[in-house]
Design a protein that fits this description.
By secondary structure, this protein is α/β, with parallel strands linked by helices. 40% of the residues lie in helices and 11% in strands. The chain has helices at residues 18-29, 35-45, 58-61, 64-71, 79-96, 107-116, 129-138, 161-170, 184-187, 205-208; strands at residues 4-7, 120-124, 147-149, 177-181, 194-198, 215-216. The protein starts with a strand and ends in a 10-residue tail after the last strand.
Amino acid sequence: MIKAVLFDKDGTLLEFSDLWIDSVIGFLKEKDLTEEDRRSLYKKVGINENNKVEENSILSSETARDLAEIFSEFIKEDEEKIYKELDNYLLDFLKNSKSEIKETCDLKKLFEYLKSKNIIIGIFTSDNYRQAKFSMEYLKVDSFIDFYAAADLYKKKPDTEGLEIFKEKYNLRDKEIMIVGDSKVDMIFGKDTIKVGVLCGTGSKEMLEEYTENIVENPMEVLSFI
């Protein structure tokens, strides 16, 4: 019996828009980089020649700290300084581009149904907490979220630190938890949890099929598994 559903954010609950690509490009424009280094950085984090994000890349499924670590290889600044500056930049960029925060389905309807079934709702994201919280507040669905596991609160996915704390808090077992996401990281997160892959993000059907038989177009369709 499913008692909790944990959602990835970008590419799952929210459209993986050009917002994140544009924010990284904007951040790097302010840095003293040669054009060659800039292009090398784009490639390394997963921005292709068409300025689109690559499947299972750093940008699609890793954290701001991971980005800062890579940036520090090219930018002559302390990695921690880059990370803090990047974290603030991403939040400001998000706030200034909030019209680009778009849900992949009717999240209010989805969450209301889950709550009517007394199901606990969590967000497990590679973003930092402030960005995740702002996005849910902007969409007016923050009140439905019981638990946030963000990259600056717990060890990043697929490490299960946040999952173990979540399980302890709500007295749950792995098999009572459904994890919904669009990337490889989401699919290998939590050994015995039930996995549902969504096709509204950066992950392909072929990739998701390597990890689960449960594949849907968007998160609303997970209701068929409840």
